[in-house]
Structure formats: C-alpha cells, structure tokens
Amino acid sequence: MTYPLVRLAQVDVGHLDLESFSRATGLHPELVRRLVALGLIDAWTGFSGGLCFPPAQVAAVGRLQRLHAGLAVNYASLGLVTDLLDRIAELEAALRTNTRWTGDRSWT
C-alpha cells in the first residue's frame, strides 16, 4: 500500500474558447478551424455552439508549428508526421520497458 507524500489539489483548468486559444497559440482563428477540420488538434462544440479546446492542445499546436516551420511540411501532411513521431515514441517507451524487465542490453 502506498501513501502520497503530498495531497494533490483538484484543479479544473477548464477549456479555452476559440478566441482564447487563438490568442494563446498566436494563430488566426480560421487557421485554428482548419487544423480542427484536418484532425490535427482536438476540439469539441461547447454549449454556445463555438469550439472549445483543452489546454493541452496549445502544446500540440506548438509542435505543429515547429514541424511546419522546421521541415517545411504542409498542414495536410503534418497529421502523418505527428502520427509517425507518436508511434516512434510509443515503440521507444515499450523497448525501454521491455529492456528494464528482461535486463537485456540495448542494441546501441
């Protein structure tokens, strides 16, 4: 049985509306709508009918902006690139976990 050393506060960080999200990311609201339509960032329709974004999507947009600027990849191709990068990260994490459990040495 484990006991936490500190008590975690239950903080509801809420969500961002389109205007707040655009301001936080520095993107035009139309570009944000296009990224949502392409499935590159997650959003849902709120009670007012506008788009709502979880705060974690700000970091996702930052990643998309870095890939778009650094690799000169268009927004339609960013979905494929991010999916591949996520898959590589999952495989590396699984390899690290498997190596830790079996005690095998890494191939590098």
Automatic annotation (TrEMBL):
A Pfam family recorded for this sequence: MerR_2
Gene3D superfamilies, alphabetized: 1.10.1660.10
Protein's recorded name: Chaperone modulator CbpM
Record organism: Microbispora maris
Record lineage: Bacteria, Bacillati, Actinomycetota, Actinomycetes, Streptosporangiales
